[in-house]
């Protein structure tokens, strides 16, 4: 901590990060131990965060992230979209296919940025706001593989055909960990199969997007 920072705000943000990292919530005692502060401090932090709906506590006293974070998250999408556009534009132009950035929204994959190539005679119409389940389509399935394996290699991508639109093939790679966003970068094209060079190019684009989000 420095003279220009707030210790209380820092602790509150650390509480939110700790809660975001667990599915089953944390007790006051567990938070106290992880933060290295006494229980009274944790109670005050949780009470303040609850007032803003950023934290909720169940009947057993376990604290979890509250629905208030959803409102904050929606405001992040325009910033993420703006940051990702240069890499997506380069990807779309290089491969001649519609490029997209997709993020997790609950149990679904949500496209937040889409760039169509400028030089092709035809391409797949894919719009920001399009959503689908995480277990269908290259974008969603790439996010799932990013949760369960090391993706720091050129094979960290998924290829699909006809899962979301008949005749369309997709390639997508998860965003590398550490960029603060759970999502994927991919392309969709009207081909029976994805050319072999597209997968590694999508991986590179995902890394480029992650770099500007860090």
From TrEMBL:
Keywords: DNA-binding, Transcription, Transcription regulation
Keyword Transcription: yes
Domain of life: Bacteria
Record keyword Chaperone present: no
Listed SMART domains: HTH_ICLR
Family annotation (InterPro entries): ArsR-like_HTH (IPR011991), GAF-like_dom_sf (IPR029016), HTH_MetabolicPath_Reg (IPR050707), Tscrpt_reg_IclR_C (IPR014757), Tscrpt_reg_IclR_N (IPR005471), WH-like_DNA-bd_sf (IPR036388), WH_DNA-bd_sf (IPR036390)
Gene3D superfamilies on file: 3.30.450.40, Winged helix-like DNA-binding domain superfamily/Winged helix DNA-binding domain
GO molecular function: DNA binding; DNA-binding transcription factor activity
GO biological process, one term: negative regulation of DNA-templated transcription
Start and end residues of each HTH iclR-type domain: 6-67
Protein name as catalogued: Helix-turn-helix domain-containing protein
Species this protein is from: Streptomyces calidiresistens
